[in-house]
Amino acid sequence: MKNQLIKRTTLGIISLMVIFIDQSSKYWASTQLSSNQIKGFIPFIIQFRLTKNTGAAFSILNQSTIFLGLLSLIVSIALIIWAYKSLSLPIWKGLGIAFLLGGSLGNGIDRWRLGYVTDFLELIPFRFPIFNFADIAINLALIFFLLDNIKRRSEKNELF
Question: How many domains would you assign to the chain?
Fold first, then answer.
C-alpha cells in the first residue's frame, strides 16, 4: 500500500489554522462571557463557561504558568525542528505534529501573554474539566500519533 505523505509547508499551514481558531475562539469567549457565566450552546451536550486555568490538563500543576510556558516553548521548538528536517512525513504523523504544534502554541500564547490559559468549553453530561480548541488539537494529535503507530505496525506485519 502506498504511503500518503504530508509536506512540511502543509504542516505549517495546519498549525497556523489551529492557532487562529484557538485564539479567535478564546478572544470571543473572553469578550462575550463573564467569569464562570454559563451560556448554552448545544443543549444537554456543550455549554460555554469562561475560566482562567493556571495549570495544565485536569488542573494538574496548578499555578505553574512559567514552567508550563517554558515547556510549551521547548515542545514547540522541538516540533518545528522535527518538521523542518523532514521534507514530508507520513500523513498521520504529520497531522500529529501539526495539531500538537498548533495546540501547544495556542495555549503557550495565553500563558505568555495573560499568565493563564482561557478555557470555555464544558461538556454537560460528564464531569469533565473545561477546555478550549488548543486542548482539542492536542488530544487529536495524540490520536493521530496512535493511528500512525498502528499503521506502521500493520505494514510490518503485512511484510511477513
Answer: 1
Does 110 participate in catalysis according to the annotation?
A: no
**Are the C-beta atoms of residues 144 and 95 closer than 8 Å to each other?**
yes
The whole domain housing 114 covers 32-153
DSSP-derived secondary structure letter, 4: P
Cα dihedral sign, 148-153-158-160? positive
Work out the angle at residue 97's Cα, subtended by the Cα atoms of residues 18 and 158, and round it to the nearest 5 degrees. 130
Render pLDDT for 8-31 as a digit per residue (tens, 0 to 9). 889 999 999 999 999 999 999 999
Q: What is the pTM of this model?
A: 0.86
Marked catalytic residue, from 22, 110, 119, 148: 119
Question: Which residue carries 528536517 as its cell?
Answer: 85
Task: Tell the residue number behind the cell numbers 505549517, with chain if given.
Answer: 12
Q: Is 148 a catalytic residue?
A: no
51: β partners: 119
